[in-house]
């Protein structure tokens, strides 16, 4: 018989994935999984992840991120004190983010940031043996694209850093093509983390799947595939 893989186990392409009985009627598949008749099959190697309600995806291995000054990164808040926030950005050292490095932040008016939140931040300083210093404002004190990323219909995923850099290229048609089909907002972290938010979780995951599937395509193939979407 088939061995069905449970969440938080390593899956390989072709493995059948087990969906809990309570999710059987209604579930959504994120990157790395597809339906094959009645079965759900892994399409890439990685750790099978699950989030309620009924969301399943495969998280691949990722190279360690090396912070560089000016990079925009997506981090997870791991700890906070009165003046400082610790942020996991996927590098060997955690990032340090001042409570006052947010738009309009003062001693009396502190930003609403909780442990577990996702933040889009910019690397201000990055030296080899020191923790990277992060900010959530630009040089004019404005947040722009930076700050806490929060939405009930959002999803974040890890992608190869070179894929993120390819998507960030001005002539990459992927996001524009997808946006004509499903309106969405996206934050692309140069540390290989991507946050997507559409009007429903199902639409969000459709966008995530399309972006993740571009991993093995050349720039030319991405252009061709986007052209097919509109033919």
Automatic annotation (TrEMBL):
GO cellular-component term (any): exosome (RNase complex)
Keywords: Cytoplasm, Exosome, Nucleus, RNA-binding, rRNA processing
Record GO terms (molecular function): RNA binding
InterPro entries in the record: Exosome_RNA_bind1/RRP40/RRP4, KH_dom_type_1, KH_dom_type_1_sf, NA-bd_OB-fold, RRP40_KH-I, Rrp40_N_euk, Rrp40_S1
Residues of the K Homology domain: 157-200
Any Gene Ontology biological process: rRNA processing
Major subcellular location class: cytoplasm
Leader sequence segment: none
Localization: Cytoplasm; Nucleus, Nucleolus
Domain Exosome complex exonuclease Rrp40 N-terminal: 29-64
Top-rank lineage group of the source organism: Eukaryota
Pfam family for this entry, one: KH_6
Family under the similarity heading: Belongs to the RRP40 family.
Protein name (Swiss-Prot/TrEMBL): Ribosomal RNA-processing protein 40
Organismal lineage: Eukaryota, Metazoa, Ecdysozoa, Arthropoda, Chelicerata
């Amino acid at each position: 018989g088939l061995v069905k893989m449970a969440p938080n186990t390593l899956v390989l392409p072709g493995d059948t994935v087990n969906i809990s009985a309570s999710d059987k009627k209604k579930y959504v598949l994120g990157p790395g999984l597809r339906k094959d008749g009645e079965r759900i099959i892994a399409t890439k190697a990685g750790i099978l992840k699950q989030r309620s309600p009924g969301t399943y995806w495969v998280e691949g291995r990722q190279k360690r991120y090396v912070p560089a000054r000016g990079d925009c990164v997506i981090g997870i808040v791991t700890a906070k004190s009165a003046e400082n926030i610790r942020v996991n950005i996927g590098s060997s050292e955690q990032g340090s983010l001042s409570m006052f490095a947010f738009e309009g932040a003062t001693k009396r008016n502190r930003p609403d940031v909780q442990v577990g939140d996702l933040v889009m931040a910019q690397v201000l300083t990055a030296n080899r043996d020191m923790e990277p210093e992060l900010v959530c404002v630009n040089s004019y004190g404005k947040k722009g694209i930076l700050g806490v990323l929060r939405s009930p219909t959002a999803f974040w995923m890890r992608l190869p850093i070179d894929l993120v850099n390819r998507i960030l290229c001005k002539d990459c048609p992927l996001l524009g093509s997808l946006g004509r089909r499903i309106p969405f907002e996206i934050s692309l972290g140069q540390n290989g983390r991507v946050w997507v938010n559409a009007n429903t979780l199902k639409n969000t995951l459709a966008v995530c799947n399309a972006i993740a599937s571009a991993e093995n395509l050349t720039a030319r193939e991405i252009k061709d595939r986007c052209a097919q979407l509109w033919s």
